[in-house]
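Table S4 entry, Nicotinamide riboside transporter PnuC.
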Amino acid sequence: MIRITFLDKLIDEWANLWIATWFVLGSIALLVGFALTTEQTPLDLFYLMVSMLGLLCVVGLSFRKNRLGNGFGMAATAGEVIVQGTSGAVGLMLAPLFNFFTHAYALRYWSKNTDGDGQMIPKSATKQVWLITILFLVVGLAAFPALNEFLTAQGFGIIQKDGSSFLGKIDFFWINVVAFVLSITAQITMILRYSFNWWLWILVNAVWLIVNLMTGNVIFAIQSCIYQINAIIGLYEWQRNAQ
């Protein structure tokens, strides 16, 4: 792994300053998006609060802090469940519910794998883990449309087919499918402490940015950009410590 002096300082002696700065700037960006692009209803305000909890969650995860990352992760995903439920998107409650329980599991699992500073110890993936991950992605992408169709028939559809496309070429439905399957895979590998999970999150953030821009969800689009910066830091921090 190539060592970068600036990033080494950022995740060591400047870590607390970076976390505070990143959170403040991220919060400002979300507040601006909230003020300029929403009607500022109670539900919009709750969306904003959930997004801020998400900021605390992901920065805690990137720095391997168990309670900050997984504790706030549970709070943020519980908030997402409420948001989707109150907006009538019952199917969209399934993903944050899944993430809620994975964060609950990680609170205990990570605590059993910590270093002298109380931070979780990440690990590098073997070839077998990589193969299983790739297989999981392939099966997930192949099986999801049928699963989604079944859930839709039961009134719990996760993704709706509206016929829209990205740049007039890529079906919006498939963009959502890729985003969903990648997110689930990234979440599982992160909870299991594999450092390569951040490569997946970088892809996830890029895809979700497209999704949020196409749906006009400016707050979450801003959040995707903020998360991307954190994912890059998380990738470097986890891979360095895994080695």
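The mean pLDDT is 87.
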